[in-house]
């Protein structure tokens, strides 16, 4: 048996060597629900999902809204049927804290990109920044960062930039409901160019690029800038106060299913709630419509607190958009 591949195959199928580490047993499968994770810097959102699949004992895991590797903070993770709720969470408002470095621009408008320009920023005052933030508050037309996941003719914008294309994306309407300048301090010089670090805090609608807010803030005050730190602090009604770090989750008892927030409680954090009777829950479980005077999107929650369906209400009826239970009387699947 001189072929190394055969030796590898034998080693895989046969007995393990004395120095081999014992194979970790598969963790018990977690219940359907939501887990709020505090993502560390340097880790992709997909990295977090991969870890959570192992910890939750299932491959049915996803997240509601990507955080860039350099960013930290709140990542809402769905487990089991919780993944079907994530679609409704991506549209939720979010809060961030960030640091914008004035005086230096990068191709990606954050610290991961190559420097493209430097400009003086000594003239910039806190009062000017506050006035600029006010101009960027409310419903605004924002041009997304060129290095972004926005698709152009079926291809991601960041792929086109990496291929050398000059990408300018069309503006889109977003809402910035709060834009606070928290502090302004001297930043580290860049090859002799003085910089300033602007600490800010914002509440924004889904689809808002905080990198682009930093870019536009710098432009309004007559210089350039890029994001050097970003932390997501809120999604819908979830905050960092209830988030668990990756090490904390990894340190949980591997013989016990991972603790999750049940779907009924999670839905109450993200959507308006409509309490439905047992009979109504049964009809929704079978995809049937209900009569109602409500308007808009609601989480239909049973008397027992179980998420039955997300429904779209209007013109006197409630139509199930996504059903989370099955069977007669809304029994759990």
TrEMBL record:
UniProt EC number: 5.4.99.25
Protein's GO biological process: mRNA pseudouridine synthesis; tRNA pseudouridine synthesis
Listed Gene3D superfamilies: Pseudouridine synthase, PUA domain
Active site: 68
Start and end residues of each tRNA pseudouridine synthase II TruB subfamily 2 C-terminal domain: 272-324
InterPro entries for this protein: PsdUridine_synth_cat_dom_sf, PsdUridine_synth_N, PUA-like_sf, PUA_sf, tRNA_psdUridine_synth_fam2_C, tRNA_psdUridine_synth_TruB
Domain of life (superkingdom): Bacteria
Domain Pseudouridine synthase II N-terminal per the UniProt entry, residue ranges: 53-210
Sequence similarity: Belongs to the pseudouridine synthase TruB family. Type 1 subfamily.
Native species: Jonesia denitrificans (strain ATCC 14870 / DSM 20603 / BCRC 15368 / CIP 55.134 / JCM 11481 / NBRC 15587 / NCTC 10816 / Prevot 55134)
Protein name, per record: tRNA pseudouridine synthase B
Keywords annotated in UniProt: Isomerase, tRNA processing
Role noted for this protein: Responsible for synthesis of pseudouridine from uracil-55 in the psi GC loop of transfer RNAs.
GO molecular function, one term: tRNA pseudouridine(55) synthase activity
Stretches for region Disordered: 1-32
Catalytic activity: uridine(55) in tRNA = pseudouridine(55) in tRNA
Enzyme class: isomerase
Listed Pfam families: TruB_C, TruB_N
């Amino acid at each position: 048996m001189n072929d190394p591949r055969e030796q590898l195959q034998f080693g895989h199928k046969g007995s393990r060597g004395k120095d081999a580490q014992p194979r970790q047993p598969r963790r018990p499968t977690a219940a359907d629900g939501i887990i709020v994770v505090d993502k560390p810097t340097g880790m992709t959102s997909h990295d977090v999902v991969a870890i959570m699949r192992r910890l939750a004992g299932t491959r049915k895991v996803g997240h509601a809204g990507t955080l860039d590797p350099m960013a930290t903070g709140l990542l809402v993770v769905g487990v089991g049927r919780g993944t079907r709720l994530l679609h409704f969470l991506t549209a939720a408002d979010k809060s961030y804290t960030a640091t914008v470095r004035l005086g230096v621009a990068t191709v990606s408008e954050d610290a991961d990109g190559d420097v493209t320009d430097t400009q003086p920023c000594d003239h910039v005052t806190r009062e000017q920044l506050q006035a600029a933030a006010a101009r960027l508050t409310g419903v605004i037309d924002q041009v997304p960062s060129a290095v972004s996941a926005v698709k152009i003719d079926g291809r991601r914008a960041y792929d086109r930039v990496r291929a050398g294309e000059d990408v300018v994306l069309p503006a889109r309407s977003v809402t910035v409901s709060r834009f606070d300048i928290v502090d302004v301090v001297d930043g580290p010089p860049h090859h002799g160019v003085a910089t300033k670090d602007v600490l800010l805090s914002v509440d924004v609608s889904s689809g808002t690029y905080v990198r682009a807010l930093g870019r536009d803030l710098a432009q309004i005050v007559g210089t350039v800038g890029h994001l050097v730190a970003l932390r997501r602090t809120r999604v819908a009604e979830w905050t960092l106060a209830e988030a668990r770090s990756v090490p904390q989750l990894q340190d949980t008892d591997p013989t016990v299913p991972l603790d999750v927030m049940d779907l009924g409680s999670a839905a109450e954090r993200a959507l308006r709630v409509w309490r439905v009777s047992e009979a109504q829950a049964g009809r929704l479980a079978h995809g049937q419509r209900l009569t109602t005077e409500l308007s808009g999107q609601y989480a239909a929650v049973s008397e027992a607190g179980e998420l039955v369906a997300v429904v779209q209400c209007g013109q006197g009826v409630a139509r199930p958009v996504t059903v989370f239970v099955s069977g007669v009387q809304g029994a759990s699947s």
